[in-house]
TrEMBL record:
Residues 1-21 form the signal peptide. Keywords: Signal. This is Lipoprotein. The keyword Signal applies.
Length: 286
């Protein structure tokens, strides 16, 4: 069963909700509990949370580099990591990630949970395709970078271990303007807003509108209820235009970590009288 990418979940336990909905093992757990294949819960711990504490709740893109196991090819691990607020020094953390390893092909999501103690984050995933990924990393003082190690036990990647590092991405929100490469006079202005909360499939929903200048068939577009999201640095946006024939504009590409630029590497108009590839578009936040 695949969960809707539009369903925004605020939890205790976004990853747990996703896991239960998918029928994965470990669903009996809750914040601070135990059981299943996930790691430690997050309640307990001595001390209190400082008033200026920065929580590890963001859209993340990490790179896993195997140093042990069958492959040495790095791959991307991206999606939602959410540290739960708490008054104790140890906090419960959940994640819903998509893993770029061939051993996870066909796995829509990989939920995990664990704890954050000071700068240290430890998580263990639920059993997906017979595999459990465990992460042990340190966050920086801004809670926007992670560096550590990981292991995988069971299944196709059994025995794999290596390093993992990466960073959080700012929200794709605001006004972005750019010109279509090779098409003088064709410009696109986006007014978009990325949800602060992640979905049960490890994405962040984006809503908003677009204005198109220099394109004869349509002048406006609106993001629909599907195919409008960010995961890590990857962006997928599909606009329904105001052309009577019902055309669609797809803008797929990447953002930088600060979300100051949106580079469209695959743009296209489908349907209607102006169907064509749009080529590359560099959109800059205003």
């Amino acid at each position: 069963m695949k969960m809707s990418a539009r369903r925004v979940l605020r939890y205790t336990g976004l990853a747990l909700s996703a896991a239960c909905a998918l029928g994965l093992t470990g669903c009996v757990k809750n914040g601070g509990g135990s059981g299943g294949s996930g790691s430690t819960g997050g309640s307990g711990g001595s001390g209190t949370t400082p008033a200026d504490y920065i929580y590890l709740s963001h859209n993340w893109s990490l790179t896993a580099t195997p140093t042990k196991g069958g492959s040495t090819t790095p791959y991307t691990v991206s999606g939602v990591i959410d540290e739960q607020p708490g008054s104790n020094a140890s906090h419960y953390v959940t994640s819903v990630l998509q893993i770029g390893s061939p051993c996870y092909d066909g796995a829509n999501i990989v939920p995990a949970d664990g704890s954050v103690n000071g700068a240290r984050i430890q998580t263990s995933s639920f059993d997906v395709a017979g595999q459990v990924m465990s992460l042990d990393a340190q966050k920086d003082s801004t809670a926007t970078h992670l560096t550590g190690v990981y292991t995988i036990s069971g299944g196709c990647a059994n025995g794999e271990a290596g390093t993992i590092s990466g960073q959080a991405y700012a929200a794709l929100s605001g006004t972005y303007v750019g010109s279509v490469a090779g098409q003088p006079g064709e410009t696109i202005t986006l007014n978009v807003n990325q949800e602060l909360l992640g979905t049960g499939v490890g994405t962040f929903v984006v809503s908003g509108t677009a204005r198109f200048s220099g394109i004869s068939c349509f002048t406006q577009g609106t993001l629909g209820v599907t195919n409008a999201y960010v995961r890590g640095g990857a962006v997928v946006l599909q606009f329904a235009t105001n052309e009577p024939q019902g055309s669609q504009v797809s803008l797929n590409g990447t953002i930088d970590a600060a979300a100051k630029t949106f580079n469209v590497t695959s743009g296209a108009v489908t349907g209607g009288a102006c169907a064509a590839s749009l080529g590359n578009i560099a959109l800059t936040k205003q």
